[in-house]
Design brief:
alpha/beta; D-Maltodextrin-Binding Protein, domain 2; 2 domains; disordered N terminus
């Protein structure tokens, strides 16, 4: 019996370094909340092909960038706008030579699927009258990319001042989507891809591209990235992952 226990202990000790190496090789990705779904699918496809498990943390790009600044162990950062990626680059926390514009998106005005409202985003459109006492769900327009794009679009169309007091600010775009889906907000501003992923909402219209900055998703390796992380980032640009993102409604960056 003692021999068996000793042999088992020896085997465990022999396997421990290999297990530790496998754990260390697991890429850790910090990604904008709007990517959940297709990015999970791409990670699963990557695991099936390479045998490498990917860990993904989703939140607003602002929250993720601040976590990375504070030392969170992210190896890939995918932001929903350039500002937060720029902030990390200026602090020397990403590898600028690995930075790419991975995806593009559009901005949608949504309502609960049973809503009878009819609105098309355009200059001076009557969104304030349509809202009445209702709420407009948006990611925080002072910090979160989707909210910043939304405020810029409403300002450019000349209607922000009329709805600012009715905005229900959320921590990320998926939270805004959930508010509308649950009927807790009469209208919402989310990405086209978010609206496509939620059957309980409908898209009333897409904001003119000229009303806000291009919606781009820059991605880069951080200073602590491993070879496995570089492999996964490369995979996200390959044909299989591109097809997954296209199926979810994401576009290719123009540049």
């Amino acid at each position: 019996m003692k021999y068996v226990l000793a042999l088992l202990a020896t085997c465990i000790l022999a396997l421990a370094p290999a297990a530790g190496a496998a754990q260390a090789a697991r890429p850790v990705v910090f990604a904008a909340a709007s990517l959940k779904g297709p990015l999970d699918e791409a990670a699963a496809a990557f695991r099936a092909e390479s045998g490498v498990e990917v860990t993904i943390s989703y939140a607003g790009s602002n929250a993720l960038a601040k976590q990375i600044e504070e030392g969170a162990p992210a190896e890939i950062f995918i932001s929903a706008d350039e500002d937060w990626m720029n902030a990390l680059q200026e602090k020397g926390l990403i590898r600028p030579e690995t930075r790419i514009d991975l995806l593009a998106n559009e901005l949608a005005l949504i309502a609960p699927v049973a809503s009878t409202l009819s609105l098309t985003p355009a200059a001076g459109f009557p969104i304030a009258a349509a809202l009445g006492e209702g709420k407009l769900a948006m990611a925080d327009p002072d910090a979160v990319p989707a909210g910043k794009y939304g405020k810029a679009a409403l300002t450019a169309l000349g209607v922000w001042d009329g709805v600012a007091a009715n905005v229900a600010r959320t921590e990320n775009v998926r939270a805004a989507l959930a508010f509308v889906a649950a009927g807790e907000a009469s209208l919402g501003i989310v990405y086209v891809t978010d609206a496509k992923a939620e059957p309980r909402v409908k898209t009333l219209g897409v904001f003119p591209a000229s009303s806000h900055d291009p919606i781009l998703y820059p991605a880069a390796l951080t200073r602590t990235a491993t070879a496995a992380s570089a492999q996964f980032l490369a995979y996200l640009r390959a044909e299989a992952a591109t097809a997954i993102f296209a199926g979810a409604g994401f576009g290719k960056p123009a540049r």
